[in-house]
């Protein structure tokens, strides 16, 4: 069941490009095909290993949920999955298990590489962008902002069509690639008629949703086995509704998309300003989001965002959000 040192045997590790509560992501180069990939490593605690040994297949299925979910997807706005495996690795020298020489069981998930996130693109001082010599930043103009949101929505609606919800949508879980020529489902950043900054030589942007560690099935409307409420709130607090009933449905992802819409339309110079303004949006206050931009359809766009972040029973569906964004973007 477990392979020994496949990671070291097949890949050269370039460096860590992301980390969180559910693991670390590394930029690697495959020794045989020479291509670059991202590999997410999720180290299993000794307690988790014991649960697998004691509970068997059910616990193993929970562990492999993200791998099996990614393997099902085929969409230009979702990260591409290449494979997954379990193997034993030695603890990092600075990790919590550094004092132990015991190998740790680690889940590896091989995916398409997207070294930048939407969070990087929105940040006025992104080290990730600067380190790659890419000084271009998001312009925050409504037309381009809504094209980006529509690309994210494409991926979310595909996810929902498979009866799954993400539950952790946020800019750091949305990944970007820049290209010099157009590709499927890309956004032409040079098409922004409002921008005055110099054109970038790589103006074509591809959006892909990633990090499916909290994905779960949509509750069945007929009270079936999947209709149970969430036992506890999960995901990043800023992007989940504070008044949620706990029902596992598409509205959870719509709420997160509403917060992301605010971030796409309003520039924040500091982390404190961002937290304050997004907190205001969660409370129904949208000063400066679209009002300061005299754009045709701005009022309707702002109302759409309000209806994405409002209380659950009044919240728009993905279809309703799409209709209003497409209307805003139409000539």
Task: Provide structural commentary.
- The chain is of the alpha+beta class.
- The protein folds into two domains: 6-112, Phosphorylase Kinase, domain 1, CATH 3.30.200.20; 116-329, Transferase(Phosphotransferase) domain 1 (Transferase(Phosphotransferase), domain 1).
- 34% of the residues lie in helices and 19% in strands.
- The protein contains eleven helices and eleven strands.
- It has helices spanning 6-10, 46-55, 57-63, 65-72, 118-122, 127-131, 142-161, 251-265, 271-282, 298-309, 318-329; strands spanning 11-20, 23-30, 36-43, 81-89, 104-112, 116-117, 164-165, 174-179, 187-188, 204-209, 216-217.
- Strands 1-2-3-5-4 form a five-stranded antiparallel beta sheet. Strands 6-8-10-9 form a four-stranded antiparallel beta sheet.
- A hairpin with a 5-residue loop joins β2 (23-30) and β3.
- It is globular and about 60 Å long.
- The model has no long low-confidence stretch (mean pLDDT 85).
Chain-averaged pLDDT: 85
- Give the class-level CATH name of the largest domain: Mainly Alpha
Which percent bin holds the helix content?
25-40%
CATH topology of the largest domain: the name is Transferase(Phosphotransferase), domain 1
In brief:
The chain has eleven helices and eleven strands.
Defining traits:
331 residues; alpha+beta; Phosphorylase Kinase, domain 1; Transferase(Phosphotransferase), domain 1; 2 domains; five-stranded antiparallel beta sheet; four-stranded antiparallel beta sheet; 11 helices; 11 strands; 34% helix; globular
